[in-house]
Design goal:
The complex is a heterodimer. Chain A is of the alpha+beta class. Chain A contains 2 helices and 4 strands, in the order βαββαβ. Chain A has a single domain, classed as Alpha-Beta Plaits, CATH 3.30.70.260. The longest helix of chain A has 13 residues. The model of chain A has no long low-confidence stretch (mean pLDDT about 85). Chain B is about 40% helix and about 15% strand. Chain B is of the alpha/beta class. In chain B, helix 4 packs across helix 5 and helix 13 packs across helix 14. In chain B, the strands form 3 sheets. A 6-stranded mixed beta sheet of chain B has the order 4-5-13-10-11-12, sandwiched between helices. A 4-stranded parallel beta sheet of chain B has the order 8-7-6-9, with helices on both faces. Chain B has a 3-stranded antiparallel beta sheet with strand order 2-1-3, with no helix packed on it. The longest helix of chain B is centred in the N-terminal third of the chain and has 15 residues. In chain B, helix 6 links the parallel strand 7 and strand 8. Classes of the chains: A alpha+beta, B alpha/beta.
Chain lengths: ~80, ~425
């Protein structure tokens, strides 16, 4: 099953929540952290997600509803213009 | 001479890749950066060789990750480093220099990065070049593509300043305005880059493109007499130019051209788009993306790719970051123009306004020799200041009419 990669950005409201753990329990997706940086008020993680595409989309919608910013990691970062 | 680029290297995990039009590590998704054969560069780039080179950024060709045989030379770089005594006095510094990049062929520092990107694109064999842009990059890509005779696709947000739109259209590229923010334009272009075999200068050839900004660091060191200043203040959009200036300075030291640098690197952003400066103020290396709302459109990148590295660099060098409101940006543009005769675009206003704040707060001490990077020319963003300049005197074609008008303005009679 192909792995999808997303970048999740957490603000102060979410950074202390075990959101990646919850995502793996509430949805049928396998999560793997590829790269991350977290401190007391802000954090981000490049997350690999394996599972049915609809289930992955539901998991990401759930994360967005929690206030997490979701970007597609495979598209790269926004660069200067 | 071919180039001394050895490989692409992931900035996060260190994995190396062969030189190719790719930009991100397939293992950890970290950004790829060019790695060089510095021993070969040390041989090829002595002070004498550099000083006898052309008065453009091609004098640093051994440091550039492209074969100069493919260059499109519009005369970019080696721009003036001007002593700015009147501005220094106005803001409370003893020694201030302005690195005046408004005089590049398309009036911004983007000509540096595009010079490298287009040479590399031609070296890779691409016959079309493209970019997502907030305006300055569009101007430069369109001009260089015209110079090379390459097909060119330029994607810009549909709310750009007219000067920047015309400044691209004149070179007759395929100019596409997109209903959305720059971040939307960029995301679209990243998707397009997977469908079309074009060189997107700030996407699939980005690792090479970004390296062009190192030439700012080289020039500052050479123009100061092969030494470095105490402090550099530069504008930050993605943070790429800010980090590459410092990379260039460190490389000069690495190959023995200058002594160990102790320059503090500080960055400038607009309050309306300040993810990096806000993170610095909050004492964290992790920024939160913002939705831009500022007149400084060339810095309006809410999700800066090099934000983390810019913050790391501030930590490494003892530098900092500031932010300026739109009013302060306009005042900064005017102050630079009125004291030094240099008309900058809004990004220059951001730099001057933030420099002023950094000095006023004591973060930059009066005795620190400082260089401020002015990255683009003011005629591109004339809307920002059009209503802020002093109205002309409107007179009849007579001496009396003139002296009356001048007396009225001065509030005192003018004698002939």
């Amino acid at each position: 099953m192909p792995e999808r990669h997303v970048r999740l950005t957490f603000g102060a409201e979410q950074v202390r929540e075990p959101l990646v753990y919850q995502m793996g329990h509430q949805f049928k997706v396998v999560t793997s952290i590829r790269m991350a940086s977290i401190d007391r008020s802000v954090g981000w993680v490049i997350l690999g997600l394996e599972g049915d595409e609809d289930e992955i989309n539901r998991a990401l919608d759930w994360a967005r509803a929690k206030g997490v910013r979701v970007d597609d990691a495979t598209l790269g970062d926004v660069v200067e213009g | 001479m071919s180039s001394f680029n050895r490989a692409l290297k992931c900035r996060e995990c260190g994995r190396e890749y062969a030189i190719a039009p790719i930009f991100s590590c397939e293992f950890c998704f970290g950004p790829l950066e060019v790695a060089y054969d510095y021993d070969a560069i040390r041989e090829a780039a002595t002070r004498d060789i550099i000083e006898s080179g052309p008065n453009t950024l091609w004098r640093y060709a051994p440091f550039l990750p492209c074969d100069p045989a493919y260059k499109v030379d519009l005369g970019t770089g080696f721009t003036p480093l001007l002593r700015a005594d009147r501005l220094a006095k106005a803001i409370g510094l003893d020694t201030l220099w302005i690195k005046n990049d408004t005089v590049n062929p398309t009036w911004s520092f983007k000509d540096r990065v595009v010079s490298v990107a287009i040479a590399k694109a031609r070296e890779f064999g691409f016959d079309a070049i493209a970019c997502a842009s907030t305006g300055n990059l569009a101007n430069s890509v369109a001009a260089h593509a015209a110079g090379a005779g390459m097909e060119c696709f330029v994607f810009i947000p549909d709310d750009l300043e007219r000067g920047k739109v015309v400044g691209s259209a004149i070179y007759d590229p395929h100019l596409v305005t997109v209903r959305g923010s720059y971040d939307d334009v960029n995301r679209l272009c990243t998707e397009l880059s997977m469908q079309f075999n074009w060189a997107f200068v700030n996407i699939n050839v980005r690792p090479y493109y970004a390296e062009g900004s190192r030439s700012l660091g080289y020039e500052i060191a050479e123009q100061l007499g092969w030494r470095t200043p105490d402090h550099i203040v530069a504008p930050m959009a993605s943070g790429s130019m800010f980090t590459k200036i410092w990379k260039g300075i460190k490389e000069f030291h690495h190959v023995g051209l200058i002594d160990e640098p102790h320059t503090r690197m500080s960055g400038a952003q607009a309050t309306g788009c300040s993810p990096i400066s806000t993170a610095f103020a909050n004492d964290t290396l992790n920024f939160i993306p913002q939705k831009p709302n500022t007149i400084a459109k060339s810095l309006a990148i809410g999700n800066p790719a090099d934000g983390y590295y810019a913050l790391k660099q501030m930590e490494e060098t003892g530098g900092g970051a500031e932010m300026a409101t739109d009013e302060e940006i306009v005042a900064g543009i005017k102050l630079l123009a009125e004291t030094e005769g240099i008309f900058a675009e809004t990004a220059g206003g951001v730099t001057i306004a933030c420099l002023k704040r950094l000095v006023a707060s004591g973060f930059i001490k009066r005795g620190e020799e400082t260089v401020a990077i002015i990255s683009g020319g003011g005629l591109k963003t004339i809307e920002a200041v059009a209503d802020e300049v002093t109205e002309p005197l409107h007179i009849q074609p007579t001496v009396n009419s003139f002296t009356e008008a001048l007396s009225a303005r001065r509030g005192a009679p003018v004698s002939v």
